[in-house]
Amino acid sequence: MEYLNAFWVGGLICLLVQILMEKTKMMPGRIMVLLVVSGAVISALGWYEPFQEFAGAGASVPLLGFGNVLMKGVREAVDEQGFLGLFMGGFKAGAVGCSAALIFGYLASLIFKPKMKK
Length: 118
Hints:
The mean pLDDT is about 85. It is built from six helices and no strands. The relative contact order is 0.11. By secondary structure, it is an all-alpha fold.
């Protein structure tokens, strides 16, 4: 059942993003920022943990999950270091994901010929 929930929740998130891309004039970068911010807000409200327990990888893999990771990092850093943690926590928690995105994006650009969207 875990696989089924991950599949349909992740698919629903992708479907909603695809609808945003097709039916609005929002650029992909803004949609990605919207997903990260939505994940952070849902995490701040305390709703992300039950959602992630239900959906598993369907909730943790999309960009909503990255927003949750950033918010967790900020929350932990604030608990440990106080006000300064607001500025350090997100960077510390998101460093691995950002590094992987940069490295794999660079490798993909070396292997494939990048094209601009028309």
